[in-house]
Amino acid sequence: MIPWRNGVLALYLGSGLLLSTLVSRLPSVRDALGLSHGEVGLLLLCMTAGSFASVSVSGFVVMRLGSKRTLVLAASLAAVSLGMVGLAAAGMHSLLLTGTALGLMGAGNAAWNVSSNVQGAAMERALGVPIMPVLHGFFSVGTVLGAAAGALGAALHLPISWHFALMSVAVLAIIHTGTRTFRPDASNVGSGHSNKSLLADAWREPRTMLLGVLVLGMALAEGAAGDWVALALSDGYGAINSVGAIGYGVFVTAMTLARLGGGFVLARLGRVVVIRISAASTLAGLLLFVFGPSMHTAFAALVFWGLGVALSFPVAMTAASDDPMRAAARVSVVSTIGYGAFLGGPPLLGLLADAVGLLHALGYVGILVAVSFFLAPAAGPRKAAAVPEPATNTTEH
């Protein structure tokens, strides 16, 4: 059981490491291609589009191949694509190839997320303790490590073609070492229903759709912090750029700590109460950040904001995976709806900021967070269907 747990933790860490490597060296990608800020945003839409297209079919793939095999293929695609980004941008100076590589990286990463959540939920059921927040906490730890490596690479003027290639190899090693310990899950065991039928049913289930809307609101709050907090501190509070970066670091640190300790809280309070506390903390942080009188209150707000958004996504993934037979389909649906926040949130907030100012635009995110608060009962436990013995699974080894 311990090797299985460590392998899953390693895969979550590798996912964070991969994404933060790209984000931390985006200025170098921009310089290599000679892009403006707006053009960088459009380039990143290639990755978002790839993610959105992939996550919508990932449940079907997991049900067909099993979470382990899907994870190996998808994570390997994402890791190799990172190396391709560095080569296309710095080696070939090709905008088209860079965008293509980012699209492939987004597609691989989205399927990686769905399959790792299905595998993580299977392990959580086997352990009998809520470990999903810790898994997502290791993702956050990976982002911190990747950002530190990115800062070091930039300081040493390491070309991104070399940096991305090295990190690609490192993540591939994590993937193929960690997945050796994975166990079969019930996501691709025959149940008398076709995979298409299971997916179609998931899109019609009220509880699954409510979980998706719940995740949508909290994912928008999380994404808004990643995209706009540093700029909002600069524009709204007159902070210099370095202070804006520190502010984002405070948010990420609070989120990471909450995830690492989230299992303890979940075991005592349950999902519904945790979701309500999370939404309330997020809403309080947002409003204090928007309307607070000083930089000190803004930083305090970021702590509440980070603590609030930390547990909602992992708790929703656990809730969507209550029935092992339908876990892949439901996780795919909930993730697809949640990804809508990351796809449409940044441009919509940018347009709203032009009209009302960035700080006040962030305040409108609180409306969806309030909706998530009232949808918390959807995350409550449900009776799982009978699960066939994993030994009958002959398609995943």
What does it look like?
This protein has 397 residues and is mainly alpha-helical. Helices cover 81% and strands 0% of the residues. It folds into two domains: 1-180, MFS general substrate transporter like domains (Growth Hormone, Chain: A), CATH 1.20.1250; 195-382, Up-down Bundle (Growth Hormone, Chain: A). The protein is globular. Helix 5 crosses helix 15. It is found in: Cell membrane. This is Fucose permease. InterPro entries: MFS, MFS_dom, MFS_trans_sf, MFS_Transporter. Keywords: Membrane, Transmembrane, Transmembrane helix. It is a multi-pass membrane protein.
Order of helices and strands: HHHHHHHHHHHHHHHHH
Count of helical regions: 17
Quote the average pLDDT. 84
Q: Report the sheet with the most strands, covering strand number, pairing sense and barrel closure.
A: none
CATH class of the largest domain: Mainly Alpha
Low-confidence stretches: 384-397
Strand content is: under 5%
Number of domains: 2
Helix content bin = over 70%
Counting helices, strands and paired strands, the structural category is mainly alpha
- Termini separation comes to 16 Å
Q: Which topology of the largest domain does CATH recognise? A: Growth Hormone, Chain: A
The CATH homologous superfamily of the largest domain is termed MFS general substrate transporter like domains
Rg, alpha carbons? 20 Å
Gross morphology: globular
CATH architecture term of the largest domain: Up-down Bundle
Number of strands: 0
Organism: Paeniglutamicibacter psychrophenolicus
Transmembrane segments: 41-63, 70-89, 95-114, 126-148, 154-175, 209-233, 245-266, 273-292, 298-320, 327-349, 355-376
InterPro entries: MFS (IPR011701), MFS_dom (IPR020846), MFS_trans_sf (IPR036259), MFS_Transporter (IPR051788)
Keywords: Membrane, Transmembrane, Transmembrane helix
